[in-house]
Amino acid sequence: MLQFMIDGGWCMWPILGCSVIALGIFLERLEALKEAEIDTDALIDGISSRVQEDDIDGAVAVAEESPGPVAATLAVGLRKLRFLTGLGKSPDEIEAGVTKAMEDHGASVVDHLERNLPMLATMAAMAPLIGMLGTVVGLIDAFSAIMQAGNVRPDKVAGGISVALLTTAAGLIVAVPATLFYNTLVARVNRVLLRVQSAGTELTEELTAIRSQGPRG
Hints:
Helix content is 86%, strand content 0%. The chain is an all-alpha fold. Helix 5 packs antiparallel against helix 6.
């Protein structure tokens, strides 16, 4: 492995750096998303039953005690619901306010879940480019040496070219799994965001259903 790095020249070190950064981001994001991908069915059922019973404080408590972005988003919406209800706002104003609060919080959820993903994509793109740069530089050096030496044996030429191609191979070796890492994480982020959106929609629909029932006696 060390000889492979030495033969490839200076370009092998930034490629190695890309691989370390890509792997670190993948493992960190994988752990973060694992914590976000908890089962939310029981959470939503518990909140829904309390909202139907007009126990907003209880619903807020359930959301705040639960981990993950779904619970955090619902907690924001429920706190807004409690605040607007306390101000005596109309059902339409309450529903609009709750929806907007959850949408605004959703932007921070997206930012948190997608953290470092652009850097991972950059590493996947940079590694093969650095590898190609190393190959081009290596070929230039090889052909310059040939021109200076005059008659050169074909096996020597082939050896120089094969060494120059090492950096391209190394760049691709890093880029392929890094791209796979990126696409895997993006798919999992989208799945979590879909759950957040679905939970927010369920809460809004719950408020609409309660409003349609009219005042409770």
